[in-house]
Write the structure tokens for this entry.
Amino acid sequence: MGITIERKGESFVAEIDGLDLSTPLSNANWSTLHRAYLDHKALIFHGQGLDAPSLSRFGEMFGGISPHTVRKYRHEDIEGVTILSNRVEMGRPKGIRDAGSHWHSDYSYREIPANVTILYALETPAEGGDTILCDMQAAWETLPEATKIRLDGLQHLLQYRWCSNQNHPESRWRLLSEDERRETPEVTHPVVRTHPETGAKSLYVFSGLTSGVQRILGIPDDESRTLLDAIFAHCQDPKFHYRYKWRGPGDILLWDNRCTMHHATTDHLPADKPRTLWRVNTIGDKPI
Ligand SMILES: O=C(O)CCC(=O)C(=O)O
Ligand SMILES: [Fe+2]
């Protein structure tokens, strides 16, 4: 069967048919997939039949696997696979109920953030639990020239557990163990990131509560707040967004965290609409 690649979003996201990801890919197929990953920033697959080891193997093709910061919901056999689920079994959550219903890019709070995120669906509700993606390269490219000049070269300070509202149910203050707190120091990243493989620039600052963005460095606090709010408002434009409606078990959605951000919609998903996904991340590069 031939491979087909169909663009789904306005500026990014493509669906690929004709690849079985449960078995090792030939060099030619990997190269097609990887090219599509760089060209479209996010890819959709349907009808895949993976187990945790084969999902992890697929992830390894993008680089070394980077297990989730929150250890509690890692897969019991394969630590690089994390369970996202709103199911509760024997009174205990089966996975992370809501892995981020706000705009963020995975592990942006780490010194070395994630490259790819791969989500594999085990069960999806008929309605709800969509995943929304935002093209941060397109967001950058459409900024006024003066704003680009103002932003380029700036760094921002962030920390996973930092949160403007520690009492918010999504605040990571309460979720982290002592070890996990030690593992999440403050880091600085560029506001505008250059993709190490394509050379393209993207905005690399995120409004989500757990993104932990504190401020832009080297300018007064109020100016930093104004600039951040202006960036976040710009990224709200739906023309940069693609909303993925999960079709069913065997779906894969993967994205490049270096030039996109994403937003789960699982914060209000009721328990009678079960949704269980496996997630894999690979270790990326230090943002420049
Ligand atoms: O559950 C989703 O739709 C996405 C969750 C998420 O943000 C993540 O796993 O990084
Ligand atoms: Fe995420």
Summary: The two ends are 40 Å apart (CA to CA). The chain has two domains: 4-125+247-258+268-283, 135-235.
